[in-house]
Structures are given as C-alpha cells and as structure tokens.
Amino acid sequence: MNTKITEPIKNIFSAQKAPIAMLLIFITMLFFKTPFYTRYNLIDLINSNSTLLIVAMGFTVVLVAGGVDLSVGGVMTVSGIIAIKLINSGVSIPVAVLVSILFGAAIGAINGYLTVYQNTEPFIITLGMGVLLTGVAQELTTARPISGENPAFQNLANYKLFGVVPALVLVMIVTVIVVVWLLRSTSFGRNCYAIGGDYEVAKYSGINVLPTKTLTFVISGVTAAIAGVMLSSWVNSGNSTYGDQTALYIASAVVVGGTSFAGGIGGAFKSLLGVMFIGILSNAFNMLNIDSYIQQLLVGLFIVGIIWLDCYARKVKRETV
Amino acid sequence: MNKKITTQSIIAFARNNLIILGIFILAIITSFVEPNFLTVGNLQNIMRQFGPLIMLSLGMTFIIMGGFIDLSVGGIISLVAVVTVSLIDPIGQVAALMVGVVIGLICGLLNSFLIIKGGAFKQSEALFLTYGMSVVFTAVALIYTAAAPVFLTYSKTDYSIFTAIGERFVGPVSVSFIIFLVCLLILYIIESRTHIGRSICLTGGNMTAARLAGIPTEKTIVFIYAVSGIMAAIGAVVLASRVTIASPIMGKGYETQAILAVVVGGTALLGGKGSVLRTVIGTLLIIMMSNCLNLLGVTTYIQYMLRGAILILAIWLDNRKQYSEGN
C-alpha cells in the first residue's frame, strides 16, 4: 500500500528533476525581497542563457548518439573571434557569419572523422581539440579582448522584435525547434537514438552508423559556432577566455535535464530545461548577493553531485539487471 | 631481401615513434639555429622546469595505466600551493609541507570515493567527475585566499626548506631533481616489483575480468588516486618554491600537460600497460619542446595550439597502432 503511493512520486522526482528544482527556486525567491521577479530580470535571464542553450542543443545530439564533444567552448570562442575579425577588416556581415559557421562545421567534421572513422575516444580527442582551439583563439587576439568596430553587427543579437524580444532569443528558439524536430521527427533522429542505445545493433540493423554519427559532431560544431557569433554580437567583442568552462557547464546542465552520458536517452527539450535550471540557480545566487567564489564552489559541488547521481543511477541499473 | 626488411622496420619504427622523432628533430634544429640551447644554463633551466610537471605526470601514469583519468590535479596544485605557503608563518615550514601533502592525499581519496561509490568506472565518467572536482578545489583555493596570491618571500619566519627545493643545487643537480629521483624510484619499485603494480595493469586492462579474478580493483582505484593526489601536492610545493608565489589559479592547464606527457611517453590511454620510465621520457620531450620553441621565438599561444594538436595526434597514432596490432 505504502509503495503504491510513493512510487509515482518517486518517478516524478527521478524523471523530472530539473522542472521540480526550478519550481523550488521560483517559490524560494518569493520569500526574498530581490529584483528577481521583474520583467527586466526575467527577459535577461532568458537572453543571457540563450548562447548556452544554442550550444546545448548540438551537445545533446552528440550525446544522444553516444559521443561527447568537449571542444564546444573552443569552437564557440574561435568562431566568435573570426566573425569579429572578418567584420572589422571590412568583410560583409553575412559572409563573415557564414565563414564562422563553416569553421564550426569543419571542426565538427574533424572531430567526427577522428572519433567515428578512426575509432578513438571522443572525450579525449575533443578535449585536445579544445586546448588547440584555445591556443588559436589566443593567437588571433593575442590573449586580449577585441571589440567590434561595425555597429551593425551588434544588431544581429541585440535587435529587439516589437521592442521586447531580443533577436538572440529568437535565434535560440529557432535552433531549439530545429533540433527538437531533428531528434523527434526525422529518421536521422531515430538513428541517433539507435546508435547511442547500442552501436553494434544499430550497425547490423542497416543504419549507416559512420556518416550519421559523424553528422552529430558536425551539428554540434555548427550550433557552437552560431552561439559564438551570437555571443560576439551580443557583447560586441571577442575574447579567448569566453569558452573556458562552457563544455563542463553544458555537460552538467544537459545531464541535469535528463540526457544521459550513456547515449540513447534524452532529448533537446530536456536539455533546455536543464540549462535554464542552472541559469536560474546562478541568477538567484546573484540576486541573493552570494560571493562569486562561493558561487563557483556551489556550482562546482552541484555539477559533481549531478554527474555523480547520473553515474550512480546507471550503477544501480547495472546491478539490478 | 634482408635490406628490404630493415628499411621496412625503420619505417615501422618511425611511424610508431613519430612524435618522439619529431621532437628530437626539433631539438637538433634548435641546437643549430640557436647556440644557447646546449649551454649549461639552459640545461639547468630545463631541469628546473622539469620539476613540477614530472611529479604530476608520474602520478598521472598510474591513473592512466589503471584505465582512469584525473583532471583534478590542476585544482589540487592550486589548493595545496596556497594552503602550504600561507601556513609557513603560523605553523612552521615542516608542518606546512606535511599539511600540503595530506591535503593532496585527501583530495585524491575524495576523487576515488566519488568514483567508487558512484560506479563511474568508465574513463569518460571519471573525466567529468574529476573535472568537476577541479572546479571545486580551485573555488576552495580562491575562497581561502580571497583570490589574492600568497607570496613566499613575504614570510616572516624561516623558509629555508622551500628555498632549498626551489633554488639549491647539490653538486650539479638541483634539489627538486633529487626529489624527483626518489619519487621515481619508489613508484618504479611499486610498479615493477609489487602486486599493487600488477593490480593496476590488470584493472586497466579489463576491470571486470580483474575483479572476477580476485584483484581488489576498488582498493587499486583508491591507491592510484591517492598517489596522484600526493604527487600533485609535491608538484605544487616544487612549483611554489621555484616561483616563490602561490596563486589560487596557478595549477590551471597542468592537467592536460601531464596527460600529454604520459601519452607522448607511450603509455596507452586505454589502460593496462605503460611505465613511469616512459613518462620520464615523455615529460622530458614536452619540456624540451617548449624550451626549443621559446628559443626559436614561437609565442606561447602557438605552443598551446601545438600541445592540443600533439595530444590529438598522439592518441590517434596510438589508436592506429593498437588497431593494426589487433588485426
């Protein structure tokens, strides 16, 4: 009798961690007198998390197909810097943006070739790629922030539709819709889940595993590049340190949302909830005036806790099977 | 016929040791272009830079041989360095050093505890957990010093041991080099002469098989992370005494360098085989490479780039080698 009541509650808590935790923060913030519940803060909350959300979408696709891409921070940084540098040297904005995105796709293709066709461990290859790209970013900027000289470039992210909704948010929404559609309603998405669930089975079922899995890395590179361009446009500068913690941050946010490192489980909308949750958490910390290093400690502990729980859930599953 | 086999074997050798050969060629070019390369001063300089990195790399070798990875060493260095240097005044230098090593040990034990209790036995899972722990350790170091660096030279009491580690030479060799030799000897004996060394290799080779064969795999994991933590602490002390400053972010980037040194030395990232002696060669090559590039006037940014590229190349080549051996 007792188990019958607790079972559904338990299920809700294990499957819907992020929304429930978000709800808790919203309720908690009601008790504090902060500017949390202002229109400005709530729009800023979505706006400032948009670039991370865009990166998280591609990251989710890779994760679902059983890979992992730790170079997203590097791709984001370098493509943003490329866009700024090209525009400053007189190249028209659409061309510069296109070159940046192609750069992201190319890096994704290299990652995909090395990990899928050459069968190497994706996390260490993409970690190395991240280090390499950080070096590229530092060389391009001589490790100093560079600012954009063309004011039109700022409009790319900062233009406000109806005077309220920033263009950055629109780009984010479009990316989310495209990725949700890709994963849910296309054969490519189905194949991704199959490959992430069991690579060998997918291979023998006749799925073209090699190109499909490589394509996930390309998508991740493209979304990271879009995020980089939008970030550069939003703050009108490029800096080699922007992407330092991105990969870890996104990884934990995506796992909080319910996409697993094991592959084959998860979804783009879940990742959206995960990223928004961590975003709201750190926004609430800021509103409560918590010291930034203590925030870093809390976020670090939180990340370790979430990833640990994900591992632990898999351990329990392994032992019960 | 005989001659053909030798050319083939030379090509095979070159292909298997591409990176090592590459760095040797770089060193030869540098010694021609830049006569300062082969001076006593520069060689002592190389020896001094060798200090902190080799300690980490030795610890990282055991971790990678055991099939795991430890990205938290950067955070451990920062934390140990600031705590140790700040404790010289209140509790004296010997006690401060001991506290530093104990902190390294605790950090390592914490990592292994998380990994074992969470069942994070895949390399990628361990990577994320230790990456997160690195953020935690760095944050603790930042909170501890309120983000300000701690200066060894401002110490009011005696810090002769630190000066000795950082600057003194016994005959032609530096004190930090002697510390390295002692650590290397101990780790080499553990690796080659004890059952712990066998356990590490077997755990790295196939953990499930090792466990079923009665190898205490969990104890092995605790051991390798504890060693990695202690070696990171020793590395932190050597680094802080050399630069006479301890900053709460000084360990940043060391973890990838340590992995690079281990992989370039020829220890397989997949685990199961390798040796601390190989890592010594790997570390020496990495230090020599950056020394050569510095002398040739290459910027640190491009060096950073090269590090990433070599890491990718080393893993790729190693993977190909194992693939062709498997066939």
Which keywords apply here?
heterodimer, A: about 325 residues, mainly alpha, ABC transporter involved in vitamin B12 uptake, BtuC, two-stranded antiparallel sheet, 14 helices, about 0% strand, globular, B: about 325 residues
Tell me the major beta sheet of chain A. Answer: 2 strands, antiparallel
- What is the string of SSEs of chain A from the N terminus onward? HHHHHHEHEEHHHHEHHH
What is the end-to-end distance of chain B?
25 Å
Strands of chain B, count:
4
Counting DSSP H or I runs of 4 or more residues, the number of helices of chain A is 14
| Mean model confidence by pLDDT of chain A | 85
Structural class of chain B: mainly alpha
Secondary structure: helix percent of chain A: over 70%
Which stretches of chain A are poorly predicted, pLDDT < 50 over at least 5 residues?
Answer: none
Beta strand count of chain A: 4
Share in β-strands of chain A: under 5%
Q: How would you name the oligomeric state of the polypeptide chains in this document?
A: heterodimer
Task: Please tell me the total number of domains of chain A.
Answer: 1
Distance between the termini of chain A: 25 Å
What is the makeup of the main sheet of chain B?
Answer: 2 strands, antiparallel
User: CATH topology of chain A, anyone?
Assistant: ABC transporter involved in vitamin B12 uptake, BtuC
Sheet with the most strands: spatial strand order of chain B: 1-4
Helix and strand sequence of chain B: HHHHHHEHEEHHHHEHHH
Q: Please compute the radius of gyration of chain A using only Cα atoms.
A: 20 Å
